[in-house]
Structures are given as structure tokens and as C-alpha cells.
Amino acid sequence: MLGNCLENVRKTVPLVHNITNYVTVNDVANVLLACGGSPIMSDEIDDVSDITSICGGLNINIGTLNKNTIAAMFAAGKKANELGHKVVLDPVGAGASALRTKTALDLADTIKFDAIRGNISEIKTLSAGSGSTKGVDADSADAVDDNNLDSAVAFVKQLAKERNTIIAVTGATDLVADAKTCYIIKNGRPEMSKITGTGCQLSGMLAAFLVANPENPLEAAAAAVCTMGLAGEIGFANMEKADGNSTYRNRIIDAIYNMTSEELNKGANYEIR
Amino acid sequence: MLGNCLENVRKTVPLVHNITNYVTVNDVANVLLACGGSPIMSDEIDDVSDITSICGGLNINIGTLNKNTIAAMFAAGKKANELGHKVVLDPVGAGASALRTKTALDLADTIKFDAIRGNISEIKTLSAGSGSTKGVDADSADAVDDNNLDSAVAFVKQLAKERNTIIAVTGATDLVADAKTCYIIKNGRPEMSKITGTGCQLSGMLAAFLVANPENPLEAAAAAVCTMGLAGEIGFANMEKADGNSTYRNRIIDAIYNMTSEELNKGANYEIR
Amino acid sequence: MLGNCLENVRKTVPLVHNITNYVTVNDVANVLLACGGSPIMSDEIDDVSDITSICGGLNINIGTLNKNTIAAMFAAGKKANELGHKVVLDPVGAGASALRTKTALDLADTIKFDAIRGNISEIKTLSAGSGSTKGVDADSADAVDDNNLDSAVAFVKQLAKERNTIIAVTGATDLVADAKTCYIIKNGRPEMSKITGTGCQLSGMLAAFLVANPENPLEAAAAAVCTMGLAGEIGFANMEKADGNSTYRNRIIDAIYNMTSEELNKGANYEIR
């Protein structure tokens, strides 16, 4: 059950090294604390090997990449692979610039990732080598919906097989797949797209869930995705008159902080194909 | 009417590229989402030309400038100018250090800005080539008030003419001017100065409003300034016992998220000279 | 009385230059505003000397150090020392990586600090030259409690003497000492460890309190520590159903914003040895 995956995070308090963008980094740290993990941030090449060595997981997010931090991403990823740590890639904006596309592809080719999480345009870019990401949001022409669900599921399974990793595509419908199995998840609220960084936050949590659940990585990844989506629903239900996207951000993190495994088991809305 | 300008942001969802400081960047992103725009952040010189090309506007803020990001500001500004995009400058701390003053002046001399927004000390520094900015706050000796309003209006019109741009000076009284016309705006609350980054947030919004309203840039700029000030008033009215500056920050962004064009038309407090 | 120290911050509005990490920087800025100070952030070596010159205090935090910002820390510290400004060191993660340990030690050997604030593992690392910091959290084996309080007090006094500075160790029990006197402070809530950055926030405040109270630095440092801990208690008392760590963060900063000197005098929970 997904709730066990959350409980294992709380029991083991996985330390996650984040090389992430400076836009949403504070929320990533607070979400990692909310779900029961522990965050550390380091992006200097002379620091990352030591830091990643004391962690259980590494979360690489290219949202505000620069030459120095790109080098640090490769160094940290290499060290984390040597140590058998869990490693997650969030290819923010792959498809939106040549540098982002190239960096995401090079990372995916060089580092063994346990999971790659992005919106559908970013993930398509990883598959095709180019894409049409609209800034940091998915191109609406790429959106996963009930009409193209079969082909989307086949696509993510195929990419998971080729890349030998878990692929997590998040949007109105989330797909979390390895080569054989796909969770189709319908938790979440459309208003979450009006907050910066729910994707970044999820990638951080994903790393913590993978570290805490080494026996069943796909279920752990699905549990992280359901936790974020369900928190979006709970946070929205807690909204009061005059609340907007800034307070919604707080309420989502708060909902993760307060979420029980029973609540997650009950609220998770998914099917497996 | 100013409300139309806000409505146009919501209808067209302008994508704004921000090269901005890491202190307030998360709030800038959430405010852009709140007003109806879409943010993307990128400050690596090898990334900014691609990123700014897919956007409609560029917001350059020197709040935590460094050698690498300064180079990226010039590259992005040049590309945005080539493409006819709207470009905003926020000269944070011009007058407080030689590097900030020089960078702000060089940017203003090299890039065509559609608007420059700062506090009165920063804007005076741009005019005089040196200044007395107190950190990132205006020197109180510079403050615009009813006693010096005529000369302040003349000053901003003159600078707008010389720089061929819109000048937005924000403080207790806000002035938004081109060479001929000045909006004198009295929205806002003094408590807004106890939150970091309302100025940075406004500069991001300003870019979005300019992109969405190409036919009437001065009105668009005034609408952005009134939106922020009015949100400060609404957010303050929503404060509860025990709330302080951190919650006030959220309530202001929330107020922008919930603001209707009617509300803006009704609440905007300005005269035109 | 400690309340006077807070009042002096509010009366004199000390401008504090922060070279700090990008994870918690926004909260540091808002906490400085909440307590009555004024923040400015700058980490470019060509900018820091000018910026620190117009400030009264400097807060150096190595939480996301890199080669460029390390150089800026030394330059700013040297200038601040020349000018007789108050300087605070927050050695985030000293003991967790060789670079962090070396940087913290080099800074402490090169710059005259008025106070050094960290968790017990970071402070032990400064004393021993190596340590066992668990990421950015203290190693539980190091924790200060009633069983080892006498030796912990002796340790911080000794280190304060050797380093000729105030040492502030924060955790469940806080110790704030110079060579002769130690404040043992029991304000705070365990839930504060579930928010990122309360330590970073405190270091920023500490700088402001030292600037505003040049006559009694130890009392000022103790006042800053009590202010943060008491705000943690007040913020927790204000928590409502469904609130979690994200809202708790806001409530703590709000509590500092609203704290009166009487409230601090009444709520401060300490003994002096």
C-alpha cells in the first residue's frame, strides 16, 4: 500500500542532497521536511561529492542551471552512482532552450537515474532529443488526457525501458511507469499550476520516497506523486475566502506535513496498467 | 480603464523571462502567476538568449548581481531588443555601491527599456550618475511627498524623455510617467516596506502588463503599480490578530490572485498630470 | 533586560549585509525586517566592500557556499573588521564536508567575529577541526541536554575564550557564552526543526541585535536567541487545525514582527552561569 511508503520516509528520515534551482529551493526544503525527510543543498563542485556521500539520495533539477552547477550535477551524480544512492532528475525546461535540452540529455546518458520526473513536454524532449516546452510549462498540444491515454502509457513504458529508469510524467493526469507497469494517477487540482514549484517539490519528495523504499521503487514513486496530488486536494479544501495561490502553497506543504498513511491510502486515486 | 490592462494579462498569459535576485525570486514567480502571467527564470549566458526568445517580456533586476549574471543581463537584453520584446529594469541598490550604479547605468545606456522601476533614490542615481541609496531602501531625504510633488513629477517626466522609457518611482506616493504624462498613485500601505521584495514583485508584474497591453504602455504600467498598491490595501484589510509581515506577504499575493478588473477600477487611487 | 535589546533594534534599524545561502535567504530578509532591522544581500566580490561599508553588521552564512562567494566572504569580512562593524558567522554544515569545515575554520582564523552561531556539531567542528554534522542538522550524539550541561557550558566558554567571540549553540537547549558567562536558554519548540532555516534566520537577527546594542553584546546575543525561541512558542500556540510546517514558518516570523519588549522579558526562559 502507498501509505507504507510514506511511513517508511517518516521512519528512516532520508537525507536528500538537492542541486536545484534558486526559485523554488525553499519550498523543496520545507516539503522534504514535511514528508519526513531531511534536505541539504550544495552545488559547488568541490563540495558536492562529500555532501552526496553522507546522503541517501540526490535530486538534480536544472531549473536555473549554470556552467558551474552543471559541472557539479555531473560530479554529484557520478559519486551518487558509485555509492548506489537513489538519484532523481528533474529536467526543468528541457525543450525550451538548447542548453537545457542538451544538459538533460547528457545527464540522462551519463548518470544512472532511478527516476526522471517532468511535465509531458520535458519528457518528450528527453525521448525525441528536442521538444516544444512552453517555458517551464508543458505545451498544451502535448497534454495527456483520456483520448490519448493508451498511447501516452505506451510511450512512458517504452521510455522507461530504454532509459532503464522510472518515468514520472505529471500534469492533469500523472503517469508513473517502469518498463512493464504504469500507475495512472488522477489526484491533484488544476489550481496547483498557479503555484510555482509544485513539480520541483515533488522531485525532492520522490528522491526521499525512493531512498526509504528500496524494495519497491515504482510503488514508492507512485506514492510520492499521489502524496503531492492529494495534498493539493486537501490544501484546496482548506482554502478560505480571500486565500490565493500564495496561501495555497503553504496549505499544500502543510497538508503533506499532516498527512497520515491512512489518509494517503484512502485518498490516492489511481489505476495500474 | 486600468482594469482592462489586468484583464489582458489574464487573457494572454504573457511569458516573462526574469533575471532577478535570489532573495525574492520565489515571490516574483508567484506574483506573475497571481496576476495571470507565467514566469521563467534563467541567468546563464548560454541559456538566456534561447529562453528570452520564447518569452514576450524580460525583467532585469540587479538585486544580487554578479559577474556572470551581469553578462547574462546584457546578452538577454540585446536579444529581447532585437525581437521587439518588452524589457523592464529594476536597478536595485543603484547608488549603494559602485558596481550597482555602474551596472544600472550601463544597462540603461545599452539596452532599450520599456520601463524602469525603482525607489526614488535608485531613480535619482540613474539620472545623476551617483546617489545616496540606503541599502535597498530609498534615502528618506529623497522621499516624494506633497511638498515636492511638482518638482518630482517634472523630474520623472524629464528622465522619461531623456531615457525614452517609462519611469516608475514607487514609495508612499508612486509616480509613473512618460515624457508627457504622469500618473500620481496613492495606493498602498506603509507596512509594505516591512516585507522584502514588493518592489521586485512589481517589476515582474510590470513586464507582464506591458507585454499584454502593447497599445497603451503607460496605462499598463500604471495599472501594474495600482494593482500592487491595492493588493497591499486589501491584504492589510484581511490581516488577523497575530498576523505579521510574513503572512502579509502571502495576503498581498493572494489579493492579486483574486483581484478582478472591477475591483482594480474601483480601488485605483490616482490622478494624471 | 533582554527587551531593551529588542527595543534598541527597533529604534536604530540596523542595516545588515548578508552573504547567505539561497535556500533560506528570503526568510532571513523577512526576519530582519520583522525584528526591526533592514537587510541587504550581496555576494559578488566587486560589490561586497561597498555594500558592507554602508551597513552596521555583516552576517556570513556558508549554507550554499561556492568558490566565488567564499572569496566574497573573506573580502567582506576584512572590510567589516576594518570598519569595526559587527560580524557574525553561521558555519552551516561544518563537519559535513571538507570544504565547509575548511572554509569555516579559515574564516574563523582570518576574520574577527563578534559571534559564531551554529548547532552543536558545527560548533564542535570549529573547536576540533573536524566533526560529524549530519547534513545541516546536529548529530544526535552531540546533543546538549541536562546530563551533559555542565561540560557543554564549559566547552562553549572555553571556545569563546579561545576564539575571543560569543559562541551561540542552538538546539533543544541553547547556550550563548563569552569566556566568562553563559546564558542557558530553554525557549523554543521541537517542531522548529521541521522548518528549514530557523538557524539562518537567527544568525541574521543576531547581527542586528549586536549592532543595536554595542554596550552589552552577550546580552544582545541572548536576546536574539530568546526572541527566536519565544517566537517559536508563540507561533506554535497560534497554530490552527490543518496548519503544518509551512504555515508555522510564517507564524514564527509574524510573532517576531509583533513581539514587544515586555513580551520578550516575560517569556524569555533562561538562567545565567
TrEMBL record, chains A, B, C:
The keyword Oxidoreductase does not apply. Substrate binds at residues 41, 197. GO terms for molecular function: ATP binding; hydroxyethylthiazole kinase activity; magnesium ion binding. The lineage of its organism: Bacteria, Bacillati, Bacillota, Clostridia, Eubacteriales. SUPFAM superfamilies: Ribokinase-like. It comes from Congzhengia minquanensis. The keyword Chloroplast does not apply. InterPro entries: Hyethyz_kinase, Ribokinase-like. One of its GO terms (biological process) is thiamine biosynthetic process. CDD domains: THZ_kinase (cd01170). Belongs to the Thz kinase family. Pathway: Cofactor biosynthesis; thiamine diphosphate biosynthesis; 4-methyl-5-(2-phosphoethyl)-thiazole from 5-(2-hydroxyethyl)-4-methylthiazole: step 1/1. Its cofactor is Mg(2+). Catalyzes the phosphorylation of the hydroxyl group of 4-methyl-5-beta-hydroxyethylthiazole (THZ). It holds the Pfam family HK. This is Hydroxyethylthiazole kinase. ATP binds at residues 117, 170. It catalyses: 5-(2-hydroxyethyl)-4-methylthiazole + ATP = 4-methyl-5-(2-phosphooxyethyl)-thiazole + ADP + H(+). Keywords: ATP-binding, Kinase, Magnesium, Metal-binding, Nucleotide-binding, Thiamine biosynthesis, Transferase. Its EC number is 2.7.1.50.
